[in-house]
Amino acid sequence: MLTDRQKVILQILVDDYIRSAEPVGSRTISKRPDMSISPATIRNEMADLEELGYLEQPHTSAGRIPSQKGYRFYVDHLMNADNGEAQDVQNLRSGLLNRLDEMEQVVQQTASIVSGLTNYTAIVLGPKVFTDKLLSIQIQPYGDRMAVAILVTDTGHVEHRKVTIPEGVPPEAIAHYVNLLNQKLVGVPLHKLKSALHTEVADELRRCSEQFEGAMMLFNQMVEPEDDGTGGQRIYLGGTTRIMNQPEFRDVEKLKPLLDMFEQTQKLVRMLEGTTSSGGIQVRIGHENLIETIHECSLVTASYTIDGIPVGSIGVLGPTRMEYGRVIHTLNQFSTTLSQILTQLNK
C-alpha cells in the first residue's frame, strides 16, 4: 500500500508527464508551490515507487515516467475529475441534434466530434443489425444471370449483396418480384428477413408466379446475411491520423501496425469486445487490452443504449500518456446524449 506522500508524488508525476511527454525529475516536483518536500526526499520516494513497479526510468534520462501499473493506480485512485468546458457539452449536443434524420449519420458524427474534443482517435461500435429495419429493396441485373440486391435500412445503411438469377426466372419478372418484396418486407428487422420471407412472401408468390422455386432461390440469396466475422456490428472511426500527433508514435515502426489495424473491422470489433455489455466507463491500459497492437495504448470506452438496452459503445484510443480525466468526462457526456438521441430515432 502506498503512503500518502507517495500518492501525492505519483499523482504530480503522472499529471506532469501527461502534459509534457517528458520524464519528470525530483527537482521539477520539488519546485511546485504546494510541495514542501526536499528534492532528496522526493528522489528517495521515486526510487521506492520505481521498485514497487509504479514508475520507470528511461535509460536516456534522470527523470522517471509512469509504468502501466502506475497509470492504473492513477486512474483508479488519484485522477482528478475533469468536468470539461460547458461549451464542449453544448457542441456535442448541437452537433448530434443536427443529424437527427438518420441513426447511422448520428453514430458517425459521434466518432468525429469525440475525436475532435479529445484529440485522440475515436472508435464507435455501432448498433447491431437487429436494430435496423428494411426501408426498401432493389435488384440491379448485370452480366449473364447476375444481379446486385440493394437493401436500404431505416437508419440509412445500405447493403449490396451479389446474387445469381436462377434458370427459369425471366428478367421481366424481376420488377414484379421487387414490388412484392417491398410490399411484404418493408419495416421488418434485417435479422428477421429470412423467416418473414417464408411467412409473408411464399404463399403470395406461390399464387401469382409460375417460377415459384426459382424466385424463392433468388430471394433467399438476397436476405441471407453476409458473415464478415463482426457479429453484425459496424465500426465508425474518427481522427485515425491523430495518433500520429503523439510523440510516442512518431516512430514509423510503431505507427504502421496501428494504422493497419484501423483498416481491419474484425480486429476493431474484437478490440471493443465486451465493452457494450459491461456498462459505464471502462479503462484498459497497455497490456490489459485484448489486441497486441495496442499494448502501448490506452482504450477508454463507454456503452450507449436504445430504450435502456445496451446496443454499442464509444471508445477513445490514445497513448498510455492520455488525459484520462478529460476523456472520461467526454465519454460520459456523449454516451448519455447518444442514448437519448438514438432512443428518439427508434420510436
From TrEMBL:
Domain Winged helix-turn-helix transcription repressor HrcA DNA-binding: 1-72
GO biological process: negative regulation of DNA-templated transcription
InterPro entries: GAF-like_dom_sf (IPR029016), HrcA (IPR002571), HrcA_C (IPR021153), WH-like_DNA-bd_sf (IPR036388), WH_DNA-bd_sf (IPR036390), WHTH_HrcA_DNA-bd (IPR005104), WHTH_transcript_rep_HrcA_IDD (IPR023120)
GO MF term set: DNA binding
Keywords, sorted A to Z: Repressor, Stress response, Transcription, Transcription regulation
Domain Heat-inducible transcription repressor HrcA C-terminal residue range list: 104-328
Domain of life: Bacteria
PANTHER family: HEAT-INDUCIBLE TRANSCRIPTION REPRESSOR HRCA (PTHR34824)
Role description: Negative regulator of class I heat shock genes (grpE-dnaK-dnaJ and groELS operons). Prevents heat-shock induction of these operons.
Family in the record: Belongs to the HrcA family.
Name the UniProt record assigns to this protein: Heat-inducible transcription repressor HrcA
Organism field: Tumebacillus flagellatus
Gene name per UniProt: hrcA
